[in-house]
Amino acid sequence: MKFTVIIHEDVHGEIKSEYKHLDSCQTGLGDLFIAEYAETLRILENLALASPIRRKDYRHIPIGRFSLLLIYQVIGNEVHIKRIIHTARKPNSRYRKL
After folding, report:
1. Cβ contacts of residue 15 below 8 Å, gap of 6+?
2. Domain range summary for the chain, segments of one domain joined by +
3. Nearest-CA neighbor of 40 among 73, 15, 63?
4. In what order do the strands lie in the sheet containing 68-75?
5. Residues 20-72 pLDDT 10s
6. Which of 2, 60, 77, 78 is the most exposed place for a label (fewest CB within 10 A)?
7. How many angstroms separate the CA atoms of 75 and 84, rounded?
8. Which fold has domain 4-95?
9. Global pTM?
C-alpha cells in the first residue's frame, strides 16, 4: 500500500533548525541530514505501518544515522509527520505536545 506523506507545518521549522545546527558543527553534515530525511520519507511512503504504535496512535522512525526520531501518525492512507525530536530527550516528552 502506498501512503501519502503530509508534513505538519511546525516540522519545516524543525528541519531548518536541525540543518543549520548540523552544518555549523561540520560543513556538509546538514546536506547529509536532508538526504537521510528524504530517504526516511520515501520509506514511510511504502512501510508506514512497519513501526509499532508507541503512544496513542503515534509511531516513530529513526532518521538515518542521526540521533533523531521522526514522530508520525497514520490516518487511512496518509502519514502525518508531527515532529522531529532528538533521542536524548526523555521518552515521555516525545509525544507531549502532539
Report:
1. 34, 37, 84
2. 4-95
3. 63
4. 4-7, 78-86, 68-75, 58-62
5. 999 999 999 999 999 999 999 999 999 999 999 998 899 999 999 999 999 99
6. 2
7. 18
8. YaeB-like fold (3.30.2310)
9. 0.87
CB 7 within 8 A of CB 81: yes
Task: Show the cell assigned to 58.
Answer: 503515534
Which grid cell is 60? 516513530
Residues 3, 48: contact at Cβ < 8 Å?
yes
C-alpha to C-alpha distance for 95 and 72, rounded to whole angstroms: 10
Q: According to the model, what pLDDT value does residue 94 have? A: 64
**Per-residue DSSP letters for the chain?**
---EEEE-HHHHHHHHHHHHHHHHHSTTHHHHHHHHHHHHHHHHHHHGGGSPP-BTTEEEEE-TTSSEEEEEEEETTEEEEEEEEETTS-GGGGGTT-
